[in-house]
Design a protein that fits this description.
The complex is a heterodimer of chains A (433) and B (141).
Chain A lengths: L4 H4 L3 H22 L1 H10 L20 H6 L13 E6 L9 E5 H17 L7 E4 L7 H13 L2 E3 L6 H10 L4 E4 L1 H14 L10 E4 L6 H11 L2 E8 L4 E7 L7 E3 L4 E6 L13 E7 L10 E7 L1 E2 L11 E2 L4 E2 L4 E3 L2 E3 L1 H9 L8 E8 L2 E9 L9 H19 L4 E5 L14 E3 L4
Parallel strand pairs in A: 3-4, 3-5, 5-6, 6-7, 18-21, 19-20
Antiparallel strand pairs in A: 1-2, 7-8, 8-9, 9-14, 10-11, 11-12, 12-15, 13-14, 16-17, 18-19
Helix pairs in contact in A: 2-3, 5-6, 7-8, 8-9, 10-11
Chain B lengths: L1 E10 L4 H11 L4 E8 L3 E8 L2 H10 L4 E11 L5 H11 L4 E9 L2 E8 L2 H10 L3 E3 L1 H6 L1
Antiparallel strand pairs in B: 1-3, 1-4, 2-3, 4-6, 4-7, 5-6
Classes of the chains: A alpha/beta (433), B alpha+beta (141).
Chain lengths: 433, 141
Amino acid sequence: MIWDEEFESMPRDALESLQLYRLRKTAERVYATVPFYKDAFDKAGIHPSGIGSMADLGRLPFTDKTDLRDNYPFGLFTLPLHEVVRIHASSGTTGKPTVVGYTRRDIDTWSSLMARTLACAGVRKGDVVQNAYGYGLFTGGLGFHYGAEKLGATVIPISGGNTKRQVMLMEDFASTVLTCTPSYALTLAEAMDELGVTKDRLKLRVGIFGAEPWSQNMRQQVETRLGIDAIDIYGISEIIGPGVSVECIEAKNGLHIFEDHFIPEIIDPETGESLPYGEDGELVFTTITKEAFPVIRYRTKDITRLHPEPCRCGRTHIRMDRVTGRTDDMLIIRGVNLFPSQIESLLMEIEGLEPHYQLIVDREGTMDTLEVQIEVNEDVFTDEIKGLEKLEKGVEKEIKDMLGISAKVRLVEPKTIERFEGKAKRVIDNRKI
Amino acid sequence: MKVEQISVFMENKTGRLAQITRVLGEAGVNILALSLADTADFGILRIIVSDNDKAHAALKAEGFTVGRNDVLAIDVPDRPGGLADFLEILKVNEINIEYMYAYRKSGHALLIFRFDDLDKAMEILPRANFKVLSAEELYAL
């Protein structure tokens, strides 16, 4: 079902006219009210009145997370706080959190977008939505909550955690929809196994999973173990929260970006140049309907690509691929793209290994080398060399099999890998290119 | 009688062994026997010490990965062919040696062994007249 037929199925030319109109309004708004944007526009040599076509979008300055931090907490709001009815913020693991604000109308817009999102994933009035996204400053919980209510579904606002209780309520309340991170969905599946709750005892039909990158393999696992359709959703608080894009249940092939509210671009993360459809690059968003906290060309650091081909679900909005990684941590080793998170998920599957690891990239002659350093703790330590060598070789083989890269695994002493207050720096790149 | 051995994971870095022995020294722990197994990247230090609990605590406090496991200390005749005779017994009984190290003290040739089957070795060796030392006997030598 399409929640908002008029906008979601809008002919492309009408959609682009709407985007241009809303873009200019937003540019005028930020230029007039936020000194940061006025400076940035002036430096880029563009005035909002100079936006004549969508091609002019590329002339606008980028905004990134640093700009949000520099203007912490409310410096990028276009309105005084008494117009703002809600504040959300990131966890701030790498410093000050990024803070976003919503007017009453922003909350309505967001709720409508989430109703769209849920409908796109196949949720209907009468569904029972078990919302296991975290409630609080994180946008996931409340975003889904308001959207599901708007759609007319029944919400169980259980938030994350309390896994056994989740399983009990899923069965007793006959939940039909599960919303949480994909990894939590697997945790719930494990808990079901432990409690002896089989999937046929549940009414679960659909799951909407996001807030972390996940793979097609993981989707299959979730679908099989829970007996549901697993739908990928994307959102970031800087843009609005969840409700930026979602897969349709008809095709499950790319996430429809709600383009009447957000204009997507893909850029080369190195040069900032716009890239054509179909090419991998960094996702950039401009919001065109938000009141309290609009952003111009916000660099998400997420890597994906865009597909303009029409979808069989009838929506005309462009689709993005599932996010494959982040610009801030992607490595290219002998031509293969690699994210530390991929290594991490391999290591995490080996029992007893410490979560502390580091990747050292170097170049010998023309060959890139990758060394994976892993701390040895008592759970994996043995007094026999062959035991430790077996561990090393095992991890090397896993990396080769799963990621197609030859890596050398080096075991290191505990606490020798640097600890960080916030997010760890996982990569040391010694290549001089 | 099994004897407890302490093993320590070490990276192949200058000064690591010096640091470990210093930590033990400052904890008042004496080393009775020692062996160092190494690969290109890391090593495993195996030691028989005068006080396992103290050694373990001191090394843990310094952040080392420390293991404790049982080995056998065997008194082998201190004469030419003594070791060969001993190994023959192992061969006949199909006991495999994971690793071993040796030292000689006041007329005793002492061997520390890790077998794939410690219990089987403990059963067979006394019958073949080889003395398996207890920790106390080892310290008393």
